[in-house]
User: Which sequence fits this backbone?
């Protein structure tokens, strides 16, 4: 082979190699992009212990929302992953959990359920400036977080005002007593009741979380002959009502958010009938399309009807997803996006955020009728 032919052949080989490499690069560049890592979110819930039923309701709502969000995000959209920690309703457990979530898992947002857990983790949130999302009804809780605390559960000021309106309109001359567990704003609650009810306030008794025998406290309250008994409890409420009826107390039961639980109805039985309580605007027998759709999805996943806390936390995740839709997991950016959300139409009513991170959303009165939770207005 002549020298010229060899040079031509070498030139062709080099060109072919370059073209092959270029085609390979071009082909590689047209492949679908690698799926991005999900954005991690922390959730500190009471999954065991005295408030486990509430924590597990929340987890069910969160998991359903995460499933829907990730299915809708597709290959390129943001996906979310929740890292759960069990607080057991113990403050130190909550502190340990938030340190892990913030410092090890590097989450930009931490969900916290209970009031005491929220208070326990606040100093860490203020120092690290991650978003704390809580469902606590504690008055003024958002102001404690330097702009990094949000909640989509209504503050208790609004619930208590709805309860005062009920008492003053329907039970004007009736005396009210309170049985409650010790919590961070319990003294504020008692002072508000005394101030608004005056000589119609018949007294208080306190119990320990997780207690099962309330007869001693109820007997003392019975001696005061109240017409109304405000049962400030969560999963203890059903047993308190049952024991009160067994002691012959025929007073009207009133309750705060947190009473709406199938466990309370199961334990209390007929004793819970007629209880009136404040609640987020979630009506299980609503014909509103978004609520009907949520219930169908919840029933399909869990084979049971959703509780209000499942609905509340379902909304919370959906709202958060709007704030991070551009794959932005920076807490400061998330905070700014959350503050822009106005009139979000969720299953627990329309949600708007104030500049302090607090929420504007409706509170309604509900009652127990024929063993079902229904709007109170339907029973006047």
Assistant:
């Amino acid at each position: 082979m002549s020298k010229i032919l060899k040079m031509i052949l070498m030139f062709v080989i080099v060109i072919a190699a370059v073209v092959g490499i270029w085609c390979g690069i071009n082909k590689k560049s047209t492949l679908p992009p690698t799926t991005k890592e999900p954005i991690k979110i922390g959730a500190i819930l009471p999954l065991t212990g005295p408030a486990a039923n509430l924590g597990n309701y929340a987890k069910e709502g969160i998991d359903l929302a995460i499933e829907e969000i990730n299915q809708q995000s597709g290959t390129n959209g943001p996906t979310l992953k929740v890292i759960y920690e069990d607080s057991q309703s113990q403050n130190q457990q909550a502190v340990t959990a938030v340190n892990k979530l913030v410092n090890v898992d590097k989450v930009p947002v931490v969900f916290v359920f209970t009031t005491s857990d929220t208070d326990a983790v606040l100093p860490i949130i203020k120092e690290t400036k991650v978003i704390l999302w809580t469902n606590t009804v504690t008055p003024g809780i958002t102001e404690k977080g330097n702009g990094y605390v949000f909640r989509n559960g209504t503050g208790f000021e609004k619930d208590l005002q709805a309860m005062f309106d009920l008492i003053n309109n329907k039970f004007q001359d009736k005396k009210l007593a309170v049985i409650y567990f010790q919590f961070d704003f319990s003294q504020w609650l008692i002072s508000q009741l005394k101030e608004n009810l005056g000589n119609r306030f018949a007294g208080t008794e306190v119990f320990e979380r997780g207690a099962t025998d309330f007869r001693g406290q109820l007997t003392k309250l019975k001696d005061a002959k109240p017409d109304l008994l405000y049962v400030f409890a969560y999963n203890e409420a059903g047993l308190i009502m049952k024991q009160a009826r067994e002691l012959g107390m025929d007073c009207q039961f009133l309750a705060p958010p947190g009473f709406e639980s199938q466990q309370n109805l199961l334990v209390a039985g007929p004793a819970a009938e007629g209880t009136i309580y404040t609640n987020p605007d979630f009506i299980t027998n609503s014909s509103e399309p978004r609520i009907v759709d949520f219930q169908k999805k919840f029933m399909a996943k869990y084979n049971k009807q959703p509780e209000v806390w499942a609905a509340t936390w379902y909304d919370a995740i959906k709202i958060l997803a709007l704030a991070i839709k551009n794959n932005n997991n920076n807490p400061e950016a998330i905070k700014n996006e959350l503050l822009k959300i106005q009139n979000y139409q969720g299953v627990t009513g329309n949600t708007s955020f104030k500049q302090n991170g607090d929420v504007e959303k409706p509170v309604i009165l509900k009652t127990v009728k024929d063993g079902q939770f229904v709007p109170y207005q339907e029973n006047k």
